[in-house]
Write a structure and sequence with these properties.
By secondary structure, the chain is of the alpha+beta class. The protein has helices spanning about 10-15, 40-55, 80-90, 105-120, 145-155, and strands at about 75, 95-100, 125-130, 160-165, 175-180.
Length: about 180
């Protein structure tokens, strides 16, 4: 764009407009505007912390479990058993996975809570949680297997879970369906 030259009338109009203005005192310093601190999602962090606190203390009952044999399964009350059948059959695409190998129960609990929260934020619906078969544990028993099942039942965002198909990890993993 081409600038138009200032006329004498423009200059006098400006001088009239700023006639009563006083110059700011000069301190000899160059004042720079500080950059604002990075935005923190404080409420989201508080919500996540509260959800974790609730999940650590919540109890579950045997009614929360489906009695369908040795395979671990869970279906949130009010949902069709077809949801669990589809999950078990592999109709849902596994979008993310969490491997808990090598973590102790406290690390695993925190990792699971963070993983689920992250998946919900990103709209992920089907995930695989690998808890392992306990082959490296004392007495070769799966320590995390039962704990992971209990933690999942306590989470409201978990609609259903089932043991993974052999190709997806079998008895060492769970397929989990999350709320939309």
């Amino acid at each position: 764009m081409k600038r138009l030259p200032l006329t004498d009338a423009d200059r006098s109009l400006f001088q009239e407009a700023v006639r009563d203005a006083e110059p700011l005192p000069h301190h000899g310093k160059v004042l720079r505007k500080k950059a604002p601190p990075p935005a923190l999602p404080v409420q989201s962090l508080l919500d996540d912390k509260e959800a974790l606190r609730e999940s650590l203390g919540a109890e579950w009952t045997t009614e929360d479990w489906l009695d369908t044999g040795d395979e671990p399964n869970f279906l949130r009350p009010g949902l069709s058993r077809q949801v669990l059948r589809k999950l078990r059959s592999g109709a849902w695409v596994i979008q993310r996975e969490l491997d808990l190998h090598g973590l102790d129960r406290h690390e695993a609990r925190e990792a699971l809570a963070g993983f689920l929260a992250n998946c919900i934020k990103r709209g992920i619906r089907c995930v695989r949680v690998i808890h392992g078969k306990g082959l490296g544990s004392k007495n070769r028993e799966p320590v995390l297997k039962t704990k992971v099942k209990n933690w999942l039942v306590q989470r409201e965002e978990v609609l259903a879970y089932c043991q993974a198909r052999p190709v997806d990890g079998g008895s060492g993993a769970l397929l989990v369906l999350l709320k939309a």
